[in-house]
């Protein structure tokens, strides 16, 4: 391996270490505790080295948000591919979305501003549309209303998202029910919306 390749590999490893350290801090102390100084201490570098990779904390948040959307899109896409029926696809996709929120709690909080000061990063990030587009396409398959408008399909998407995101948010701030009850509520909500999707 040449010196240029080695330098590039070390730089990428350092960048990933910074992101991992940031996420570790958040898991231990919460998003409000994250600072460039704490990241530097965690990976035993000086703060100026961190600034060589990220201009500020928002740059780190942007990269972590992007990472979250990419992981979420992969999990939703995998759920989609397990089924052929559009209703089953949609249910599996929303369940994958739900599971992501609890498996990657801190990333979900960042991506959707749950229980933290919400940032405006999503608007400028194309990765944020990956999941929306996948789910939107399956919803379109289920709608049989003639001459349906774009607003009609959009309304159905936001009905799903509002309910699923609401349930996740309630549980992330520790005010939800037990896991069995959560799963029943989640599946009831998904099946109910699918049943009346053409209304």
From TrEMBL:
InterPro entries to which the protein is assigned, alphabetical: Homeodomain-like_sf, HTH-type_Tx_Regulator, HTH_TetR, MT1864/Rv1816-like_C, Tet_transcr_reg_TetR-rel_C_sf
Residue ranges for the DNA-binding region feature of this UniProt entry: 35-54
Keyword Secreted: no
Source organism, top-level taxon: Bacteria
Pfam families referenced in this protein's UniProt entry, alphabetically: TetR_C_33, TetR_N
Residue stretches making up the HTH tetR-type domain: 12-72
Listed Gene3D superfamilies: Tetracycline Repressor, domain 2
Keyword Transcription regulation: yes
SUPFAM superfamilies for this protein: Homeodomain-like (SSF46689), Tetracyclin repressor-like, C-terminal domain (SSF48498)
GO molecular function, one term: DNA binding
PROSITE patterns: HTH_TETR_2
Record keywords: DNA-binding, Transcription, Transcription regulation
Identification of the protein by name: TetR/AcrR family transcriptional regulator
Source organism per UniProt: Pedobacter psychroterrae
């Amino acid at each position: 391996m040449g010196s240029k390749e080695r330098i590039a590999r070390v730089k990428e490893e350092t960048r990933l270490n910074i992101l991992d350290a940031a996420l570790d801090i958040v898991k231990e102390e919460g998003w409000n505790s994250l600072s460039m100084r704490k990241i530097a201490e965690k990976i035993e570098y000086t703060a100026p080295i961190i600034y060589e990779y990220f201009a500020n904390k928002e740059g780190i948040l942007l990269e972590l948000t992007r990472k979250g959307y990419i992981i979420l899109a992969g999990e939703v896409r995998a759920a989609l591919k397990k089924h052929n029926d559009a209703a089953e696809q949609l249910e599996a996709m929303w369940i994958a979305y739900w599971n992501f929120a609890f498996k990657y709690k801190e990333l979900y909080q960042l991506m959707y501003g749950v229980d933290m000061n919400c940032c405006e990063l999503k608007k400028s990030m194309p990765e944020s549309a990956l999941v929306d587009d996948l789910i939107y396409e399956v919803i379109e398959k289920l709608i049989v209303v003639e001459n349906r408008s774009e607003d009609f399909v959009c309304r159905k998407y936001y009905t799903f998202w509002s309910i699923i995101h609401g349930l996740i948010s309630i549980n992330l701030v520790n005010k939800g029910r037990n896991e069995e009850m959560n799963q029943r509520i989640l599946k009831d909500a998904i099946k109910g919306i699918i049943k009346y999707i053409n209304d």
